[in-house]
Protein 1
Amino acid sequence: MFAPKTILVTGASRGIGLLTVKSLANAGHYVFAAMRDLQGRNNAIARELIDWAEENDLTLETVEMDVTNESSVNATIQAIEKDRSINVLINNAGIMPTGLTEAFTPEQIKACFDVNVLGPARACRAVLPHMRDRRSGLLIHISSTAGRVAIPFFGVYCASKWALEAYAESLHYELAPFGIESILVEPGGHSTDLVKTAPAPTDQDCLLGYGKFADGRDQMLGMFERMFAVGENITDAQNVADKIVDLIEMKGPRPIRTTVGQDMGLNQINANVAPVQSELIKSLADRVKF
């Protein structure tokens, strides 16, 4: 029987984050569902979550957190740590820009990285001092199949997830002496609202220069919508939430990477890269103590 964990999930107002907090609470864990604008646009879903938890006698709290704001992240995590030790941080908040890569402005690219890369970094920096003091903890970063492959019209999104993968894996090696694990979950295409909320590029002159190829964004998003409309189990986002629960409750060392759903060749990529990466780490460990 596993010991219940105190778990903080970012981006918990919708999609995989919302499914994950419910699944973890149902499994008996103490869950903090972090989201922006608790008194505004997310007030209804926050109230629904609290009512649902109370009706089912589950331990779940909603907390205000904007992963793009360092003060917000630090204040929320410090407040939680005053009463409870955070055992698991799930970096889930993310956005999925879709469209011609060149047509995304530098400001748009910065905004994507602010959520998808710097957001997890802010959360990790706030929680890790506490985990290191306790010499235990688990970081789960929600990446994507796009974190290991390059896809047309998803260049900015892929770049951000590739960066997250490198950040998370480097933490994996550096935190091992402290009894802390940093791991990645790589979902394939799953039915969430990421498709409907995908930011589009705004450089209209650039889009015009590509002619009909600028329609690739709509074609790609339409392809995903049609795939999700079929309702196959492999695209059910609940699968990702269930896998996260399994990883948290797993005994022994966890895999650095776990794919969920359509892997788009990632299992083969991960299997091929793993021995090369392992040999590199072994070689460095022979020269540098870490």
Protein 2
Amino acid sequence: MVLEIKNVSKEFGSFTAVNSLSFVIPENEMFGFLGGNGAGKTTTFRMILGLLEPTRGEIHWNGEKIDYSKSSKIGYLPEERGLYPKLKVKDQIVYLARLRGMDKAAALRELEYWLDRFKVPEYLNKKVEELSKGNQQKIQVIAAIIHKPELLILDEPFSGLDPVNVELLKDAVMELKAKGTTIVFSSHRMEHVEELCENLCIMHKGSPVVHGALKEIKRSFGKKNLSIHADFDLSFLKDFPGVVKAKPVTEGVILQITGEEAAEGILKDIVKKGFIRKFEIEEPSLNDIFIEKVGAAYE
């Protein structure tokens, strides 16, 4: 089922939250949706879900508008969490699953499966308020995926999770994708998007500033990173021809350069100065591209 967003804008009085946004997400794809605070990501998610009506433009899923009749096919993890603290995990998830059309036995089976997957089977009969923030996050994720949605929207799914639990959640998301779920997710962590998504959109102040396949975005960026570790001072390279940016690190320097010709010139110059332990050209990271396009690092 294809998700299509066509010239969508959302205005609140004189404030434009989303401005002329268009993209298509094919079936069974993981799509990254990035942007700083106030970029318009959550507003877009709410319009996709039919919780907000666009001021202009159209949103279609498999050629139709999304409404409450399709809620059994959609999963949503909002950025602001919303579990009932006094309810037991079992009662809460079964209740939410039944709202999505599941029967109690099937919901319990799925819940036990996911609690095992997330390595917390002992939480079945615990109250949500007894769990740590990270473990509450796992329960919230289970609530979004228990009914095996065809479309899953994850708003900052990794926030509040330690590295071990991030890997558990990433594996779960990859499993859902492998079984045919279309996934749209936002994340503050660029490396997660690089690892999981083939296509992405970067938003800034309500407008898309970068959109397309990750490989093509990196290729068209036109710059590369060069990492050098050496036993002599490399600070002079910041003024070297072809160097756009220089960042000192403990063992040397990371340069942003205009291309491979610049790297060749640098190597010729430094090879006679002393021992070089590392000289490695890398593709630009998504973080580099984001900072250039949006003008600020994620906080």
Protein 3
Amino acid sequence: MNYLELWNSAWPAGLTMLGLGSGFSVVLLIASVKLKVEVDPKIEQIQQALPNLNCGACGFAGCAQYAKGVSENPELLGRCAPGGPETTAKIAGILNLQISDSGPAERPIVHCRAQTADKTYYAKYQGIATCTAANALANVQACKFGCLGFGDCTLACRFDALDIIDGLATVDYAKCTGCGACSRTCPRNLIEMVPFSQDNMMTVACSSKEAGKSTRGMCKVGCIGCGICAKKSEQFTVEDNLARLAYEKYERTEETEAAFNKCPTGVIIYVGKSAPKPRVLAKKAAIANNKE
């Protein structure tokens, strides 16, 4: 077959393909115009106002979904924890809404203060190094309420605001945005989102509901449910052998300071950006002095 014959046999197929391609292009062009979804400009503006971290703190899968959600339902305003009041104000402006004070921002509090030396262990855990895996097993450590220290919360935090320091999850409040990822991740529910009405908040850093004698045998710094704090200040209550502080009512007073100073295990502490270190108990101080 010579070139002329080859050309005469090939050009009809090529022309057919060209026609089909052009036809499909026209169809797709028409479809793109006819089926185009108009995006509400307000949604685009809201998304631009958001930090676009897609942390999920708002309850949506990402910032785009939240932008659409809050544009349709203004009651969702204020859910962007990383953006804070500034972002809330921007979104309110886009939606032509007036906002009032929504109260103090929430930040996480770890309800445990036991470091490695404070805990009693039955055996050395050698399984998968995650809190979720360790929590599925009995007797990883004596206290079934305490921090496991494998750092699931640190992996969940996108802001590098948590560290495991000597076996204990510790929040860096200078970096924390209050997204709540750490709280949702902890398998023992030790991390609670609390309204920070003050820069430094007082808290009971324990979750154990064991009787006082059992707690003493498992942890050197756990709450023994003695009730001294509740006697000193009505902001404290004791239930199920565990003291708790009413955060929504918290004010630093002489009574709360008395509870702080009289706590026999030092489980009442301050947390925050400039929080003072936990109180050193007299017995521990004496031991430390003798070692020196």
Protein 4
Amino acid sequence: MTPSTAAPQERAHTLPLVLLVLAQVVLFMIPLIVLGSAIGWPASLRLPAAEALPLIAAKAEAVQLGYWGYLVTAVAMVPLAVALRRHFASRGANGMINDTMVAFGVAAAILKTLGIVRWLTAMPMLALAHGNAADPGRRAAVETAYAALNGYAGSVGELLGVQLVSGLWMILVGVLLARTDRRAVGIAGAVVGAGFAANALRSAVPALEVLSAVMPPVGLAWLLWLAVALWRSR
């Protein structure tokens, strides 16, 4: 392929990549706005079962809509990671780092999906059972089931998917950006990714809990910067 034909093809590949990056920002607005206004998400994730279950039942439609939006956001990480791999490979960044980056992106999508699905299936059922329970003992049993499922699936989806593996993915994206002449946005991505990965350790280091509120908006801002950098590099 000659340089004259390579340039138009590269520009054609860049637009879908930029749209996939922007889709992460736009799609994340669905759970942020819908669930935030309906149930106070993401703070509601840490509510005790006796408070969370009636809230989920009362806002059932909003919970479904918000988490379907979040699920699409998670799944959209797969084509984004694959498109980034192609982008970096076209600039000579082939090899283990690029392959590992796409593997982390796909793994993060899977782990997020496993965590999100509980809100589309099990949690609404538990909320309904809790509301229909005639005696305190049955309600207590439902609350115990909610707490156990939320603790396990939350660790898989949030601690591993959203934070640890997504953070490692962002670190590698940052390294690859820095190697392909996007040094500033690359270094920023590696730093933001390290913040997400560190937040996964908050159960062992409670002081890291502050990152839970800081990292999501910082991550969204970095994605916007990434979209601009990719567009300008075409």
